[in-house]
């Protein structure tokens, strides 16, 4: 076996190697769950569930235990611990009894579902009493679900903000799925991060430059093409013409791409002069004569985003004019638009859109790009992701278990077997202690005994995460309630979707 081959036996925290010796004698089942804990003052009230299917397909399904991998793990752990603590016989029993397939059952909410924080998202349990220790052995890998869940959630938060201002300043949500472009490929830690984060963004939008995300959506979520881009300039393709030939650089790009939209970075020297004297004067006719749909998208890439966008709009309006849309907000001619990709995060995008609205401009005039704030400036604590044991069986007798640290009540865990359902008010809630009704449970068995038993296409995932007009009205209602409804936080915590 090559040194770089993935070995599931080595895909866990070191201390878990010794846990098979630590559980009570005669234990035969360990049942655990994953959630994004709820805490007072959370910025994100809901989470978008995504990425489990990828993890299961790539790392956990099929035969993951072989004699060769057992021997590799035995050697590694002997050297690592300087003593013999590896359960060689336990892993060999999995190989013999289950052909190296994991006797584990995982139930999860459908991918793309939007669930209030503090609820169970998936559960894990052993299906063979002999391998009770497997449930939490797999925790390390499963908790890495924090990453695609967090990216999908942040992308969803962007979508809500964009939807709010697009609806207010245009009267519709047309084009919403192209309003946030993923610029994050170069800003992440690895190719896998780019793929998983890029695909998570594509749950909510269809606009990306992160090719790795497209390939993941294709391979693991049955989507032939999940996102789209357009020809675009970077600074090297502009400054290679020299400072005195910026106009020639722009003109050449228009010639090279005579049809279809094109994005041209225009701040290599002076964005305002470029917009006024080159785009708004020397190349104005060239821009306006382009075919319908062949929009020139101006990209500022420096300065204060709010001030820069407003000033660029003002300059372009002077040259190209503007009109009022159906709800009374200004709109540049369709031949020219703006993309702002510098300094964009959850906070700045709302500040920009609010300023545009206040200045009478429609959100239709621009799109946004986001890089590290979308795919990289996050961690497991962004959504407080946790995996905890809530139920065990010893000699077939069940017991609800939990943690309740006196120093931090927010770290208290759930008890017993869990299910997820809507309560009498229609809000989603976790039912503990095995009291849920199976027919009402939103958790679906997706993995059992080494086999993926339920799959989702990206189309299905997107449908689950779709932002409908009625959702936008509810979101606005919730936002308004924040100013005076003392029960608002509790209601949102208990679920809107």
UniProtKB/TrEMBL annotation:
<dbReference type="GO" id="GO:0005615">
    <property type="term" value="C:extracellular space"/>
</dbReference>
<dbReference type="InterPro" id="IPR036068">
    <property type="entry name" value="Nicotinate_pribotase-like_C"/>
</dbReference>
<feature type="domain" description="Nicotinate/nicotinamide phosphoribosyltransferase">
    <location>
        <begin position="178"/>
        <end position="425"/>
    </location>
</feature>
<dbReference type="Pfam" id="PF18127">
    <property type="entry name" value="NAMPT_N"/>
</dbReference>
<dbReference type="InterPro" id="IPR041525">
    <property type="entry name" value="N/Namide_PRibTrfase"/>
</dbReference>
<dbReference type="InterPro" id="IPR016471">
    <property type="entry name" value="Nicotinamide_PRibTrfase"/>
</dbReference>
<comment type="subunit">
    <text>Homodimer.</text>
</comment>
<dbReference type="GO" id="GO:0009435">
    <property type="term" value="P:NAD+ biosynthetic process"/>
</dbReference>
<feature type="domain" description="Nicotinamide phosphoribosyltransferase N-terminal">
    <location>
        <begin position="7"/>
        <end position="106"/>
    </location>
</feature>
<dbReference type="InterPro" id="IPR013785">
    <property type="entry name" value="Aldolase_TIM"/>
</dbReference>
<dbReference type="GO" id="GO:0005634">
    <property type="term" value="C:nucleus"/>
</dbReference>
<dbReference type="Pfam" id="PF04095">
    <property type="entry name" value="NAPRTase"/>
</dbReference>
<comment type="similarity">
    <text>Belongs to the NAPRTase family.</text>
</comment>
<comment type="pathway">
    <text>Cofactor biosynthesis; NAD(+) biosynthesis; nicotinamide D-ribonucleotide from 5-phospho-alpha-D-ribose 1-diphosphate and nicotinamide: step 1/1.</text>
</comment>
<dbReference type="GO" id="GO:0005737">
    <property type="term" value="C:cytoplasm"/>
</dbReference>
<dbReference type="GO" id="GO:0005125">
    <property type="term" value="F:cytokine activity"/>
</dbReference>
<keyword id="KW-0090">Biological rhythms</keyword>
<protein>
    <recommendedName>
        <fullName>Nicotinamide phosphoribosyltransferase</fullName>
        <ecNumber>2.4.2.12</ecNumber>
    </recommendedName>
</protein>
<keyword id="KW-0964">Secreted</keyword>
<keyword id="KW-0808">Transferase</keyword>
<keyword id="KW-0963">Cytoplasm</keyword>
<keyword id="KW-0202">Cytokine</keyword>
<dbReference type="GO" id="GO:0032922">
    <property type="term" value="P:circadian regulation of gene expression"/>
</dbReference>
<keyword id="KW-0328">Glycosyltransferase</keyword>
<dbReference type="InterPro" id="IPR041529">
    <property type="entry name" value="DUF5598"/>
</dbReference>
<keyword id="KW-0539">Nucleus</keyword>
<keyword id="KW-0662">Pyridine nucleotide biosynthesis</keyword>
<dbReference type="GO" id="GO:0047280">
    <property type="term" value="F:nicotinamide phosphoribosyltransferase activity"/>
</dbReference>
């Amino acid at each position: 076996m090559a040194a770089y081959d993935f070995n599931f036996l080595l895909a866990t925290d070191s201390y878990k190697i010794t846990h098979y010796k630590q559980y009570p004698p005669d234990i035969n089942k360990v049942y655990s769950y994953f959630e994004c804990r709820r805490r007072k003052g959370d910025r994100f009230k809901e989470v978008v569930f995504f990425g489990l299917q990828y993890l299961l397909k790539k790392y956990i399904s099929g035969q993951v235990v072989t004699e060769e991998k057992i021997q590799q793990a035995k050697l590694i752990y002997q050297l690592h611990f300087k003593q013999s603590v590896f359960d060689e016989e336990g892993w060999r029993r999995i190989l013999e009894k289950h052909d190296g397939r994991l006797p584990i059952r995982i139930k999860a909410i459908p991918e793309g579902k939007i669930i209030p924080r503090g609820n169970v998202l998936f559960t894990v349990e052993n299906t063979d009493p002999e391998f009770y220790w497997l449930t939490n052995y797999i925790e390390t890998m499963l908790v890495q679900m924090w990453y695609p869940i967090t990216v999908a959630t942040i992308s969803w938060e962007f979508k809500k903000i964009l939807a709010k201002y697009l609806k207010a300043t245009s009267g519709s949500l047309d084009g919403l799925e192209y309003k946030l472009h993923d610029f994050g490929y170069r800003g992440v830690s690895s190719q896998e991060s780019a793929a998983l984060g890029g695909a998570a963004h594509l749950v909510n939008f269809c606009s990306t430059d992160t090719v790795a995300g497209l390939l993941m959506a294709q391979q693991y979520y049955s989507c032939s093409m999940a996102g789209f881009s357009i020809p675009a300039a970077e600074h090297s393709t502009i400054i290679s013409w020299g400072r005195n030939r910026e106009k020639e650089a722009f003109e050449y790009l228009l010639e090279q791409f005579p049809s279809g939209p094109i994005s041209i970075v225009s701040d290599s020297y002076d964005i305002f002069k470029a917009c006024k004297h080159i785009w708004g004067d020397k190349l104005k006719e060239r821009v306006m004569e382009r075919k319908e749909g062949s929009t020139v998208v101006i990209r500022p890439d420096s300065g204060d985003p709010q001030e820069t966008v407003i000033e660029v709009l003002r300059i372009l309006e002077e040259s190209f004019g503007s009109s009022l849309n159906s709800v009374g907000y200004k709109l540049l001619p369709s031949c020219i638009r703006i993309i702002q990709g510098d300094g964009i995060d959850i906070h700045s995008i709302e500040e920009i859109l609010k300023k545009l609205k206040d200045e009478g401009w429609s959100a239709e005039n621009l799109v946004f790009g986001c890089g590290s704030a979308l795919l990289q400036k996050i961690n497991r604590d962004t959504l407080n992701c946790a995996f905890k044991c809530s139920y065990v069986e010893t000699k077939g007798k069940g017991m609800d278990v939990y943690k309740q640290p006196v120093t931090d009540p927010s770290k208290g865990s759930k008890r017993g077997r869990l299910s997820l359902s809507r309560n009498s008010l229609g809000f989603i809630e976790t039912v503990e202690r095995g009291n849920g009704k199976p027919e009402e449970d939103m958790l679906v068995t997706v993995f059992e005994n080494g086999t993926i038993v339920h799959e989702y296409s990206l189309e299905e995932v997107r449908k689950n995460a779709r932002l409908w007009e009625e959702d936008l009205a509810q979101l606005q209602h919730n936002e308004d309630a924040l100013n005076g409804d003392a029960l608002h936080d509790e209601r949102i915590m208990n679920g809107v979707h």
